[in-house]
Each structure stands twice: as structure tokens, then as C-alpha cells.
Design brief:
- The chain is α/β, with parallel strands linked by helices.
- The chain has a domain of 128 residues: 3-Layer(aba) Sandwich (Rossmann fold).
- 34% of the residues lie in helices and 24% in strands.
- The protein contains ten helices and ten strands.
- The strands form two sheets. The protein has a six-stranded mixed beta sheet with strand order 6-7-8-3-9-10, sandwiched between helices.
- β9 and β10 form a beta hairpin.
- It is globular, with a radius of gyration of 19 Å.
- 39% of the residues are buried.
Length: 257
């Protein structure tokens, strides 16, 4: 586990028997897994496998038809749980406000809730941007940033609350390969430095195998396998192998009809 020396700051997450249907369509079909404190746990799978619906349950935006989600043995949906544990979501889009500077975006939560003085907020913003390698962009506007930089600013914004659990929703979507590597490296560095528990929801196979301590592969609303990257890569399940090794095949232009 990457954060073995710092795991006290992370929280444990348990999902048991999670089921969810929309009208007559069952989307989650009995999902079970556990994430250890300080672990980077990746949930991957193709589009339509149930990843996005599962993520909404993890942050209590959806209520399951059956099953439970626990943070340190306490229900995630309970108000006292939300008050007790610090959780942050890094949105797929980054969700930065274009009318605010980078610094204002990062410090927005502290400013709106008046949790710190303006001077304290300014220092926290600088520290969190420095943590993701962007200390020099505090006064820039989001429109001036590359896609990869926007994702890192979104991570800095999540760090402002000193989270014990970070959920990443497709953190490398719409990024070029080099930017994707940078974002993956940031996820690893934050985990190693802070011991935060990280759950990464993605269909990016390179990211998943690059950052995961353990991973789960989903298919048709179920968990197909949970294991280390090596265990998952060596899984013989044809559905798992089909997803992991899906490649575009093009016939030669010189092939004779």
C-alpha cells in the first residue's frame, strides 16, 4: 500500500450488497467491496457498467434499494457521518468557475463558509496549489489553463478541507497521454504524503494500473474481480480480459478483396 506509513489520516470504506434500480432496470446488482485506510482503490469498467451510479452512492447523492455504505463503520448517508469525516470529490469536468481566478476557485469553500481569515485562506490556497505543482497560477483564470492543469487545480481545491477520503471521477477524461500521466503522479504523491484514502473511478486502463493498490473491475452492475493490478491482469474471466485488452484492429489497406 502506497500510504502505509500515513494511513491513520485515511478512513475505511465498506460497500455491502448494494443494489439500485431505475424503473425496471437494475443498474447495481449486489456490489460488495472494502477499501482500507490510506489505500488507492480503483473502480474501472466500460461505459454502462454502473461505475457512475456507484460513485453517486458513495457520496450519498443516490439512495440504494438495498445494501449499505459505511465509512469507519458508520452509514455514509447519516448527517453525523458527513459532519464527522471530511470527504472530497474531484469532478470529471474539474467544475471550476470561469468567473473566478484559480486562487478564488481553490479557496471558495473556506471563503463562503468564513472558516478562515482572508490572509489564512490566501496562504492555504498557495500551499495547496504548490502541493500539485501549480503555485504560479494563483492569479490566472481557468480559461488560461490546459486541461491537465484544470484537473490539478480541482485536486488542490479538494485538498483545502484536508480530506480523509477523496473520490476521483474519471480524472483523466479528455486529457492527452502526457497530462494523464501528470494527474496520475499527483494522485500517487498525495496518497504517499498525506495517507488519504483514494477511490478512483475510471475507464482509463493506464491510469488504473499505474496508481492502484487494489482495483475492482465492474461489468453489468456487478463486481467481476477485486485484486492487485497483477491479480486483475492475470484474471481468466473473459469479460475482464475483453475490457483490459480491447484494442482497435484495422485491416491492411493492401488486403486483396
Amino acid at each position: 500500500m502506497n500510504a502505509a506509513n500515513n494511513s491513520a489520516s485515511g478512513v475505511g470504506l465498506v460497500v455491502r450488497g448494494l443494489r439500485k434500480s431505475f424503473e425496471d432496470q437494475e443498474v447495481l446488482k449486489g456490489v460488495d467491496f472494502a477499501v482500507q485506510p490510506g489505500e488507492i482503490f480503483v473502480i474501472m469498467g466500460p461505459s454502462g457498467s454502473g461505475k457512475s451510479v456507484l460513485l453517486k452512492h458513495l457520496i450519498a447523492l443516490e439512495t440504494p434499494n438495498a445494501g449499505e455504505i459505511l465509512i469507519n463503520s458508520e452509514p455514509v448517508s447519516a448527517p453525523e457521518t458527513a459532519a464527522k469525516y471530511r470527504m472530497a470529490l474531484v469532478f470529471q469536468s474539474g467544475a471550476l468557475l470561469n468567473s473566478l481566478t484559480v486562487g478564488e476557485n481553490v479557496g471558495l469553500y473556506l471563503t463562503e463558509h468564513r472558516l478562515k481569515t482572508p490572509e489564512e485562506i490566501q496562504q492555504i490556497v498557495v500551499d495547496k496549489l504548490a502541493a500539485v505543482g501549480l503555485k504560479d497560477v494563483v492569479d490566472k483564470m481557468p480559461a488560461d489553463l490546459s486541461g491537465g492543469m484544470k484537473k490539478r487545480v480541482a485536486i488542490a481545491r479538494a485538498l483545502v478541507i484536508e480530506p480523509q477520503l477523496i473520490l476521483y471521477d474519471e480524472p483523466t477524461s479528455e486529457l492527452d497521454p502526457l497530462s494523464s500521466v501528470v494527474v496520475g503522479e499527483e494522485i500517487l504523491r498525495l496518497n504517499q504524503r498525506t495517507g488519504v484514502t483514494s477511490v478512483v473511478v475510471t475507464h482509463d486502463r493506464d491510469l488504473a494500473f499505474g496508481v492502484a493498490d487494489r482495483m475492482a473491475v465492474m461489468g453489468d452492475g456487478k463486481i467481476l474481480i477485486i485484486g492487485t493490478p497483477d491479480e486483475v491482469n492475470n484474471c481468466k474471466d473473459p469479460e475482464v480480459q475483453s475490457f483490459l485488452h480491447a484494442d482497435f484492429k484495422r485491416e491492411s489497406k493492401n488486403k486483396k478483396l
